[in-house]
Amino acid sequence: MSAVAIDGVWKFFGDYPALRDVSFNVEGGACLALLGRNGAGKTTLLRILAGLSKTSKGSITILDQDARAQAARRQIGVLGHGIGVYEELSAFENLRLFARLYGIADPVKTSMEWLERTGLERVRDGLVREFSRGMRQRLAVARAFLHNPRLLLLDEPFTALDDRAIKVLQDLLKNALAEGRTIIMSTHQLREALELATDVALINRGKLAFRGLRTREMVEDPGWLYRHYGEA
Amino acid sequence: MNFLRLAWAVAAKDLRSEVRSKETINASLSFALVILLLFSFAFDPDSEQIREISGGLLWLVFAFAGTLILNRSFARELVNDCLDALIASPASGAQLFLGKCLGNYVLLLIVECLCLPIFAVFYNIRVPRSLALLFLVMLLGTWGITVIGTLFSAMTVNLRLREIMLPSLIYPMLIPALMGSIHLSTILIAGDPLAADDQIWFRVLVGFDLIFTILSLGLVEIVLVG
Hints:
A: Rossmann fold; 9 helices; about 35% helix; B: mainly alpha; about 80% helix
């Protein structure tokens, strides 16, 4: 069964087509590396998948539902460019807020568990504004994974992460894949992404240039895909 | 119940953040005090004229001070892309909107309650006999300002000139609510009884609040996601 079905999606910003007739499916349990140069349309597509924006034309189905359906959003974890946590709240208060928004049965217990998993239990009552960059990033990872999402949408997840946060995220992603969850991540860090990915999609100026399984030659030579299917 | 619980979680988050940062309440309160002070130089506090314009003065202060609170309402969500995190959650646009409204409403009422005794001192106004009715007018008028202001705060959040756009957009929309609130407040502050004709303004306020609350709850999903 396809976890994500993207069918003839166009997205216009004014007259400019940021996405042009993009269609592909992502099977349940797959990890798709969404590749492309800056401005190719990766973030636009991820924002539509996350329900943050609507398509101009075409349709998107996530776990057999519309991307903006409440039931679909309950199953999606989003880690975008921003960390998505509040500066004036503590780490615990941030996680408890999102646990409530996601309808988790025991928000306090779940928040505490995720603080432990991300190594933030000792600063649980510290305000985010006092956190280091690495601590903020781990809190953002906890927020995205808090509700055990079946589909993870990650936009440049490894960018600007410190070593500890990269390790936390890589472990979580490997566990998520082992548990059969679906991951779609856009990234410029080809080596890290391709090591984890089972599938690859390359977007070039808003159009799907390549969609297929990740191959050994892609891992050995991350530039191969761009040379064969990317912009000259 | 779940609808209200989630809305309250958003409101509590806003209020908790504000208690810690005191960012908007300090700005709003000091702005309100400055306006009250400046107007007190312009009008003789002992004149009969002040009784006639007291309601107008008071609601001008509330509307100006309210804009500062409402401007920050969605703008504070832009830090760390928190607005995206909220919209991506299963909470509906209506729940998020109602939560933001409740938070703004509480903050605006706090500023108004602090302004009221200062207004009485500066303009030599005695405590009105119908203080409860005056509070009712404040509750109704403030909800109108809050609902319209919060919706337009969401609409203008990504504009560079949102600080100017928000008041330009909301004040014309608020004319019926402000007219009702000013009319009723002037009578109540003067200590005069409300005539049967005046009571229609209560209906105007209630109707305004109901219509714009329902409209805003219906429209906010389009405002937030497109």
